[in-house]
Amino acid sequence: SDFIREWLPWRTEYLNVILEGEQLAKGGICEQCCQAEGSIRCMSCTGVHAWCGPCAVKAHRNLPFHKVQRWNGTHYQATSLMDLGFLWHVGHGGGPCPQAQENPNPEESGYVSGEGPPNYRRSSRSQMTIVHTEGIFTHEVSWCSCPGSDPIDLHLSLLRERLFPASISKPKTAFTFEVLNHFLIDALECKTSAMSFYQKLKRFTNNAFPDRVPDRYRELMRVSRLWRDLKHRKWFGFGHDTELDPGEGGLALFCPACPQPGINLPPDWKARYDSNTVTRQYVIDGNFTAQHMKMNKPEMDVSLSDGKGYMVSEIPYQSHLQQSVDNKERSTCSNHRAINAANINKSNLRSTGIGATACARHGCFVPHSVVDFQKGERYMNTDYSICNALSYHSENITTALVIYDVGCQWSVNFRSRVKSSSSLFLPSGLEIIPAVGKFHLAAHKLSCFPRYSLNFVKGAGHLDGEILETLWAPFNKISPTARSMTQAHRQEVYDDHMRDSNWKKLVGIVPSLLKKYKTSNKCLEDMNQAYEQLNAVLDPNKVARWELDAVKAEADRGEALDIYLLRGDKAPTFHEAQLKLGKNPVSSSANLGSVAWLAEGISIEDSQDQLRYELRQLPSPMSARQEVKTSEKRQRLSSRIEKFHSTGQAFLKGLEIDGAFIPQDDPAFCVQEDQEKEDGEFWEDDDTVLEAPDEEVQELASELMSIWMPSSIGAAKLMEIGLHDLLKEEMELRIGQANDCLDQLQTDLGSKAMLYRQNFRTANSTREGTRTKKEIQKVVVRINKHVRSYQRARKAILRLDLNDNIGEKFKEIQPEDLAVSKEVTEENRFGQGVSKMAWFWMVDGEQNLLNGDSGGLMEEFYRINWLKARARRDRWREEVSLVRHEMLWTTLWFQYQKEIWETRALQSTEPGKEAYASKQVELWSDFTKKAGLMFQGKQMECI
Fold first, then answer.
1. Is-cis flag, bond preceding 261, omega within 30?
2. Can you name the residues that pair with 139 across neighbouring β-strands?
């Protein structure tokens, strides 16, 4: 903004300077010959120039794509170099052919004769449309007439001029290499369609009348496919190894950091590494946006790289589908779209989407593993993708982690499906560990959480399993364009975008691993500290038992992993404590009815809180009806309080309580209570008949009156006057009240989370979303009410607790503690790598459970929390180790590419091939040096 403000005063001056450029340049005198009229200027050259026609042509001998204009007496008008006499000589570096001669029958070769410079003899010429980044140009081309030149090879002559012919015989259109490269980059980076790109070029050429520009859109579509294919074969060395044909995935890049025997692993890797370190970690997912329409004439389609990139070969894949049994089983876990969509079919679509497998740690697509869906996401499709991925550069790797959003269902019969198929193969001795991505796992049944969570997979490191979801976003931008392409063209486009995605991952792999290294070390330190702090307060015998359970679960997996599920009994509630005290008094000398009196006092406190809440909802000033209702409620409540205090005199032995206090609600827990209420909802008539209060006018409203209970006196005074039995009774009731509040708080926090996740996020209309929002607001009101009640119970407990033992258990609740207790209500949630439980999820109503007998909710919470703390620490410890290994493997992968091109450079017998190979050697040398420098002191050593 500051730069714009600085520029604003100069706006008019800028405009004047720009308009000055529209006048006749150099006084209309040619700057080259200084004799002829200088009516020609170039809009592409830097600076201001004025030439005559011949001088302009001479100045642009090697600049055929500059745009020139001619002064017509009043203003400059667009013209062309061809109109000025420019002749493009092909075959001799821009100069005329020394063997040029008149062609007696030029029409026979498809070209017409034209005039050249005065000293130039007639030769074969033709007009060509040439597409460049600056627009579409028409030039007259003079072809080489040297002995041995053949009109049939004219397309090769254009190619040597860095022009790609649109046809082999009699080319009339060509595209510069530069414009083809621009189109490929625009398509990859900006997701520009061929139509939009060509429309841009037409506007560059003639923005006022683009319809006057030659239409070469179809030629661009065709030539760009050929150019892309040639570029890829050149990049992957098949211009040097011309006798070799790219095999499956031969024109595809893969991840430099994933372990690949024979490529980036040390020769003795089997002796140096265990199976947990060298594990292939894959994630598979479908994209139903990447649809493909049926072709009218599929037999006319021509493929350039079927199966050479990331999408599988079409014929073997179709053969696999024909012999596979269509499994229409429904998911027994949850209502997963991936399974239940298998019955969906759209008659106008050849493909309803695609499924891909990628490395789970770095997000690189696996070559030759992307498949088309026909009727949704069926196992016959995903099995083919996974089997191809598991066989790619994985010789002697014995463990594979496969992450799939329906992995719990897919993995049940996977091996049996492979065994019964003649087109599916798995490496021998391969152990497959199925898992579900952390985000998708939240939608599964709770029983899936421990068995398929990545938090409990030994060797997985810190992994979310959702990286493929992030890769689909750019593909969704090209899907509408690719939807109507031919099958082969669509396959090439998807291959190109996946290759480019992997290339960008490769370019950024060094900073990415460095960032992971820094993050994982910090998180390991934090998680290890949390684990050690938890260990310090636990019974060592129990920790030892839990450690054995965890080790056994990691080894056995399956049902053994259910140890990570919560189980246990609830703490005693308020009513349970009241019933217990009624049946078993604290002592035989206790006053009869004291428990009921104490319970009534707690109930009055809750009624006061409710009335204060209701009054906060009323407008100011209140209506007459609302004032009447308020007065009635206050009178009834005041009568209850007066009766309570009168009855309490017998239990308090006539003790006078000094210093009345006014109940105060914490403002932090009175927010979000503004949900819509119908007038009168708070003021329903109460048929309870209560005695009228004394006629004396109360100075204080009933909702603000003090309630005199043993806790109002304090533990020391109660013990001094012999009311220790009353103290113990209120203590037990207050503990029950606190337990009730915490239990209801947990329930409502869980309800809030479920309402938000299942209703609010998935609302199909504004009305539905508003309704859910109101429901959430009601839950928030209940949560605040529980917290306020808990605060009253806690204050009473602190006054009654002589030794501060019980008070330490019931801590203060902070607003930030009201985040949903996901360890309990959402155990299978996403994002548990660095999570910690709020304190009240670990509170039990029993005492001494940390070091006492087994059983109880408190111990169960600590068991679960310890197991998860251990798992988090182990995963981050593995993450640090894996990242260090990946640094080494990345460096070795770059070194491998360098050595391949060094070999090609040595074996090259042609200068061009040798030069290109040397260029690639330098490229991969730079990658290797950068990795070695940045990873120094961090990566694993290669001995």
1. no
2. 128
> Distance between CA 248 and CA 422 in Å, rounded?
18
Placement of tokens 């078993």 in the chain: 584
Q: Which residue has the higher pLDDT, 576 or 309?
A: 309
Mean pLDDT of 670-697: 44
How confident is the model over 626-658, as pLDDT tens digits?
Answer: 888 999 998 998 999 888 888 888 787 666 665
Contact between residue 269 and residue 278 where contact means Cβ atoms under 8 Å apart: yes
Distances (CA, A) of 337 to 331, 344, 447, 454, 628: 9, 10, 19, 21, 56
Do the bridges between strand 173-176 and strand 292-293 make them parallel or antiparallel, or are there none, so unpaired? Answer: unpaired
Q: Tokens for 673? A: 């209570």
Separation in Å, CA 610 to CA 402, 491, 607, 629: 54, 66, 5, 14
Nearest to 745 by CA among 705, 794, 798, 804: 794
- Distance, CA of 54 to CA of 441 (rounded, Å): 74
Q: What is the CA radius of gyration of the chain?
A: 40
Q: Cα–Cα distance between 94 and 88 in angstroms, integer? A: 7
Q: Is 71 helix (H, G, I), strand (E, B) or coil?
A: strand
pLDDT, mean over the chain:
83
Cβ pair 371, 355 in contact under 8 A = yes
- Angle CA 394–400–404, to nearest 5: 125
Q: What is the DSSP letter of 365?
A: B
Q: Tell the residue number behind the tokens 């009834």, with chain if given.
A: 636
> Which amino acid would we find at residue 18?
I
- Output the DSSP codes for 45-58: SSS---B-HHHHHH
Residue for token digits 């509170």?
A: 843
Angle at Cα 538 formed by Cα 537 and Cα 540, nearest 5°? Answer: 125
SS3 280: strand
Distances (CA, A) of 503 to 28, 397, 499, 587, 847: 53, 25, 6, 80, 60
- What local confidence, expressed as pLDDT, does residue 151 receive? 72
Q: What is the β-pairing status of strands 124-132 and 173-176?
A: parallel
What is the pLDDT averaged over residues 58-76?
A: 94
Which tokens sit at 481?
Answer: 């364009």
What pLDDT digit, counting tens, does each position of 601-611 carry? 899 988 988 88
Angstrom CA distances, 729 to 145, 533, 537, stand at: 115, 35, 30
User: How does strand 124-132 pair with strand 135-142?
Assistant: antiparallel
Tokens of 308: 């050479």
pTM beyond cutoff 0.85: no
pLDDT tens per residue, range 790-846: 888 888 888 887 666 666 678 888 887 776 545 444 555 555 555 655 666 555 443
Q: Starting from the edge strand earliest in sequence, which strands make up the sheet with 353-359, in order? A: 371-373, 353-359, 280-287, 399-404, 431-435
Q: pLDDT tens-digit profile of 107-160? A: 444 443 333 444 333 457 889 999 999 999 999 999 888 877 777 788 998 999
- Kindly state the DSSP code that residue 25 receives in the 8-state scheme: G
